[in-house]
Design goal:
By secondary structure, this protein is of the alpha+beta class. It has one domain. The protein is built from two helices and five strands. The chain has a five-stranded antiparallel β-sheet, with helices on one face. The mean pLDDT is about 80.
Length: about 110
């Protein structure tokens, strides 16, 4: 596994777009905090989760080859009291297309073994 950065053959714009699209989709799958906490975070422009990105498989020379990204999502320490599970891992499969704003093919929660 390697880091998701410009050294993997993707442009910075592609990486930013991929991360944004994954965050938007993953946020829908994460448990919600109490409403007053969510509202406070929204008004402050903050989030309760931190994201770590790992590139599992990528072939920069072949744009038809799918990209696999593993995303670790952890609840920030100050909010751990509100959730029993504070860490999630998602496996994302992407396919680069001429329209870089719709790269996601699938996102699923990784099963813990």
């Amino acid at each position: 596994m390697s880091k998701l950065d410009a050294s993997c053959g993707l442009t910075l714009q592609q990486i930013r777009t991929i991360k944004f699209a994954i965050k938007q989709t993953v946020n829908l799958k994460l448990p919600k905090l109490p409403d007053y906490i969510e509202t406070k975070l929204f008004l402050q422009g903050r989030g309760a989760w931190t994201y770590s990105w790992h590139l599992s498989d990528q072939d920069a020379q072949n744009p038809l080859h799918p990209i696999f990204i593993e995303v670790d999502v952890k609840l920030k320490k100050e909010f751990c009291q509100y959730q029993s599970c504070t860490r999630y891992t998602f496996l994302c499969k992407l396919q680069l297309q001429p329209d870089i704003y719709s790269p996601i093919k699938s996102i699923r929660k990784k099963r813990l073994t």
